[in-house]
Amino acid sequence: MQRAAQANATKTSDPSLSGQQLVVTDLGWQTGRKVILSDINFHLKQGEFVGLLGPNGAGKSSLLRCLYRYHSPTTGQVYYQGQPLDTYIQQAYAQQVAVVLQESPSFFNLSVTDVVELGLLPRTSIWHRTSLNEQQQVQQALTQVAMLDKAKQSFDSLSGGEKQRVLIARAIVQQPSLLIMDEPTSHLDVKYQIQIINLAKSLGITVLASFHDLNLASAMCDRLLVLSNGELVADGAPNQVLTQPLLAKVFGVNAQLQPHPEHGSPLITYHYRSENKLESSAEQGAAHD
Ligand SMILES: Nc1ncnc2c1ncn2[C@@H]1O[C@H](COP(=O)(O)OP(=O)(O)OP(=O)(O)O)[C@@H](O)[C@H]1O
């Protein structure tokens, strides 16, 4: 990995890390005295599409922030392409990793095109004049997210879902090898939820995305990670992870699961009037463990 070499740091020699794009070992993060994440261990292989699940406050955004270097882990280490994250030069890491966040920043009247062009920055500089080829890349990305017709509109005037799609176009233009998305579908209607996730999958790069919609994650992800109270409690294929006991214990819901008729991963049907059955369902699950 040439750009990583530019970071002027020694790669780890641990053989268990070789071949993994991202490796997280014993990661913990705390703010003040409050421990938010502890003992997190997992890895991402090249090209995997991995969903990060967990109830509100479980620590999903905090973990993603550690991975895109907004937070420094308090304990443990993150390796990207075998090299500790904290040894990367910021720009070298930005060339590799694109981030799409749940809350859209204000771009102070920049047009949609201007915002997508910001995706070129990690590979160029602010003084750089956009070439014809780059303009075509921007147009292509806007076409992929069905936003070309709003290319000249001010970004701040877009709807929440439109903004999200433009930010994904910016990430496409960045040409990352890892895409981190924090609730990328939270503002999207159901058609665009499916389209945007399919689009992210079609890029062929590694994606780690947090979700609240468990059925969407089940349908679209190769692997799921589940956080609960800042700890990783499950890591595996959707049909290994999404079980009645886990849904009861981690998410506090009573649900039935069956293979989805189209893709075969679990289809979850929630029980809306059965809070009183929750405990017995969790107990049942424990009995099956
Ligand atoms: N900078 C901070 N200072 C204090 N507490 C924080 C900070 N950042 C996160 N937390 C706390 O850490 C916990 C996890 O927050 P985080 O946003 O990571 O959860 P989440 O799983 O992404 O939640 P949600 O699904 O609601 O977005 C929460 O209790 C939150 O209040």
UniProtKB/TrEMBL annotation:
SMART domains associated with the record: AAA
Superkingdom in the source lineage: Bacteria
MF terms in GO: ATP binding; ATP hydrolysis activity
SUPFAM superfamilies tied to this protein: P-loop containing nucleoside triphosphate hydrolases
Keyword Transport in record: yes
Keywords: ATP-binding, Nucleotide-binding, Transport
Coiled-coil stretches noted in the UniProt entry, renumbered to this chain: none
Domain ABC transporter: 22-254
Xref: InterPro entries: AAA+_ATPase (IPR003593), ABC_transporter-like_ATP-bd (IPR003439), ABC_transporter-like_CS (IPR017871), P-loop_NTPase (IPR027417)
DNA repair found in the keyword field: no
PANTHER family cross-referenced by the UniProt entry: ABC TRANSPORTER ATP-BINDING PROTEIN, HEMIN IMPORT ATP-BINDING PROTEIN HMUV
The family this protein is said to belong to: Belongs to the ABC transporter superfamily.
Protein name: ABC transporter ATP-binding protein
Species assigned in the record: Thalassotalea euphylliae
